[in-house]
Design goal:
mainly alpha; ABC transporter involved in vitamin B12 uptake, BtuC; two-stranded antiparallel ribbon; 15 helices; BCAA_transport_permease; High-affinity branched-chain amino acid transport system permease protein LivH; cell membrane
Amino acid sequence: MDAIILQILNGLDKGSAYALIALGLTLIFGTLGVVNFAHGALFMIGAFCAVSLNKLLNLSFETVDPTRTDFLGNPLKVKTPYIEGWFGPDLGHAIIDWSVPLAILFSIPIMIAVGFIMERGLIKHFYRRPHADQILVTFGLAIVLQELIKHYYGANPIQTPAPDAFKGSFDFGAMMGFDPNTIIYPYWRMIYFAFAAVIIGGVFAFLQFTTFGMVVRAGMADRETVGLLGINIDKRFTIMFGLAAAVAGLAGVMYAPINSPNYHMGMDFLVLSFVVVVVGGMGSLPGAVAAGFLLGILESFASMNEIKSIIPGIDQIVIYVAAIVILLARPRGLLGRRGVMED
């Protein structure tokens, strides 16, 4: 039982990342009809927003500390972050320590701007082109963004620590009546799952209960009719592209302490996220979220040593096997609209 609970927690953790990325992909496909293979790069850029803010807050100046000396007896030069010089050592250290949560505010305008530039500068020219053309151009854009990150940040992963308050693990076992230290889980992974739930709930509430969201949903269902009502649906869809970019970026920001950001992390998540979108149903927002958590839990259970000893390598292919089975039985996906991908 303890192993099952632990794998469910691991699955919710992975599923949170899959669901957030797939949600943004589905928003773009549902509104603009674009297959955006650069969406994983947006996740990567979000993670490097956290890296950039952490580096920015750690910029330092040198001072001489006469009370400390080096091995030759000379006064020791000490590096002090500018933020500590401006706000004092206690507040300055706290700001640096909380750089990842602060990067949420830092990344939102950046990701929206990146989304607008991407949509207006490139993707809008491919709306009426075949999906194959969209895939090629957005995949090429993803490679360009990946290489830019590699050029400026290097090829090695960059550690971006979580706040000290959320380091360590929570003892689920003791809370549920098991022996202490039977089921322990990192605090930050729990924070990530809660954060993903808030973002997903916020997106659905925005689409369901705001006038803007209702118009967008109507445009997703019948774009021409909404346009005939005098509503500039294209402008609203561009805004949705920016919001989808922000969702992917926020997913990357909060994932930075879990998996140290590197230049290829976007590609690592991209293919899996597209599988999630297709399994959930192309254009179905609830389907993307449900499939993300379902496949995350399935992958987590497949990674258990007991399973891998029976079927070696199953953890690497289980998501694709599940996708094949689901799509053979239900071509439109779990919650896809009737007629989509069923021709």
